[in-house]
Amino acid sequence: MAAWMKGAGHGPLGRLSMRLAAWAAPPHRGRNLLARLSPAGFVAASALEHHPDLTYGRHGFIGERVVLYSRDGSGRIVLGNGAHVYQDSVLETGHGGEIHIGAHTSIHTRCQLMAYVGSIRIGSGVAVAANCALYPYDHGTVLGEPIARQPLVSRGDIVIDDDAWLGTGVIVLAGVRVGTGAVVAAGAVVTRDVPPNAIAAGVPARVVGWRQPPPRDRAEPVEHLEAIAAAGGRDLP
Ligand SMILES: CC(C)(COP(=O)(O)OP(=O)(O)OC[C@H]1O[C@@H](n2cnc3c(N)ncnc32)[C@H](O)[C@@H]1OP(=O)(O)O)[C@@H](O)C(=O)NCCC(=O)NCCS
Residue 125 needs a FRET pair 20 to 30 A away by CA distance; which of 24, 58, 85, 227 works? Predict the structure, then answer.
């Protein structure tokens, strides 16, 4: 495995090396370890890349059947060092929208990041749980015209700041900022900004609490981003 990953890269031969290394590796998130073995990281053979402006960070992970797509050749996708995108997630850009994913951020299975018109900017050490959807645009809804023919509009970019956690099934709409260290509870629909370190829940999401300092007798945590990096990304179960 390690020997094959020495040849890993984003050209045809580098990808062949990744494919050969994957044969001997465990499936799904078990292949994270391959990403750690090479600065080129790991991209599953079944991932679909149709994007003219795609930048990989070092030691990144792209899982099975992930789609990285640009509809009209516009926008950028920039993946930070140690960023992980798990299987069946779809990252699309179009109409000038961009996607930026920070270092050691994980996008878990079946997430949809659809950066049309507006952009999606996710910071470092962020955890986006399975089945989340981030949509920084809407269809025009003027009465009397078919919605499908109306132009896409955006109320602004989506920004998810460092260390935030989106629980499973969260939907984030246009123009929203989720602050540093904020927690968004499972199933929430975020229509307004969430302040740093808040815990927000519900539809529409409202602040239901705040993160609390650790109890005094708790052991010192390992330096946060270092710990995430050592684990090969924020790899939540
Ligand atoms: C948000 C969460 C972390 C709990 O945070 P917490 O601070 O311990 O919150 P509590 O359980 O004390 O709940 C606070 C209030 O929010 C409500 N609440 C918690 N989670 C909620 C949710 N997903 N949707 C709606 N309301 C929710 C509680 O009912 C409670 O309301 P009440 O005060 O009226 O009784 C947890 O509920 C959650 O959603 N976890 C996400 C799990 C997940 O997606 N895991 C994927 C792994 S990456």
Answer: 24
